[in-house]
Amino acid sequence: MPPKKGLSAADKRDRMLEIFHESADVFVIKDVEKLSVKRGIIAQAVQDVLQSLIDDDLVHCEKIGISNYYWAFPSEASVKIETEVKKYETELANTKRRRVEVESALAQHKAANPKTDERAKALARLNELKSRAAEVQGELAAYRDSDPETVAAMRAASEGAKLAANRWLDNTYSLLSWCKKKFVGREAELAKFFEENGLGENIEYLE
């Protein structure tokens, strides 16, 4: 014989909810577990199924003292279902109304823009112009380096870099002069050190 198929998650929820509705009583967790096992729900699944019903507001839970108490009355379930039905009916009515509005707008648009040869030619011409505009933008980007504003910005940046380089050269010569005064008699060593690091006395200022 094939193995007995277990209950689905939906079946477990329905059976546990029946326990509350049929008794209309308040339970502690031990009572829920005992009655659920009798309905075919394994003990290990009781907590998860119960929590899913609580999360969906189908079962209430209240902590009193050190114990949690659970209940769910049939009248509450019917009220909840009726509320949801009204909600979905309202959403359906709004969707239908919106559909009518969209279909009406679409019909008006088609009436105002009939598919004539002249309109087809105009659309084709528009697509051609869009394509050409994209090509021109590409060509413009290729010549952007020659743009007067770009060239002016590059020149300004170059001038700033030149001033900074000359300023650092001033600082280097000042440092070399200080070292010569500080380390008298070791001028040759200082000159060699600076030259090896590309800072010889023959470096010229940028013009």
UniProtKB/TrEMBL annotation:
Belongs to the MND1 family. GO terms for molecular function: double-stranded DNA binding. It holds the Pfam family LZ3wCH. This is Meiotic nuclear division protein 1 homolog. Required for proper homologous chromosome pairing and efficient cross-over and intragenic recombination during meiosis. GO terms for biological process: reciprocal meiotic recombination. It is found in: Nucleus. Residues 16-74 form the Mnd1 HTH domain. Keywords: Coiled coil, Nucleus. Residues 149-205 form the Leucine zipper with capping helix domain. Its main location: nucleus.
